[in-house]
Amino acid sequence: xxxxxxxxxxxxxxxxxxxxxxxxxxxxxxxxxxxxxxxxxxxxxxxxxxxxxxxxxxxxxxxxxxxxxxxxxxxxxxxxxxxxxxxxxxxxxxxxxxxxxxxxxxxxxxxxxxxxxxxxxxxxxxxxxxxxxxxxxxxxxxxxxxxxxxxxxxxxxxxxxxxxxxxxxxxxxxxxxxxxxxxxxxxxxxxxxxxxxxxxxxxxxxxxxxxxxxxxxxxxxxxxxxxxxxxxxxxxxxxxxxxxxxxx
Length: 248
Description:
By secondary structure, this protein is an alpha+beta fold. The chain has helices at residues 48-65, 74-92, 141-147, 153-157, 196-199, 204-213, 216-231, and strands at residues 3-12, 21-27, 35-43, 101-102, 104-110, 113-119, 123-128, 131-135, 178-183, 189-194, 238-247.
């Protein structure tokens, strides 16, 4: 079966005074069927978060334009994007009054393959026909407590330190970078990169169903509208990048 790619990126400022999320999707300049999706959730005083998130997207785009599959593996490339963005974000401390930090999640799609890397609590989900295949683990205190069995999922949702990250870009410590991937892509596969301003309002089952039942643009609109309604006036910035594998 011949397959094609259906994509959409979407953002909303939520109920914040400034948009500090950034998202981008870019085709490779010379490799047909090869693209990258990147999402960053910035943190920092003044405009520091926006500066940091912008650097993540910029480095991903710049590095991807020079990516050569014959001499660099996808995993090496993805790690380098996050490491390079981390270095640039740290340098911006010397040129601004802000204290910039950011999460990062980056996915490369090429014929038959998808690879990704992340740091922080911005997530990548992989669904197949609506069922969850994989999800990136958060680098957060709450995620560590959950894994240790010290709190329940219900307690995690209302934990007072649920936004405390254990690793991010721009910190003194090097970012913790985790990678993943899948082969044998097929029609029915769907990927979504999203910030916590979106995923906090959905179960895996509901998100997978919305992605399965709709094209990328319609799914993005439904997810955005539902997240805004459920935030009840207290929503964070939210952003997403959706990539669906569909039959031609």
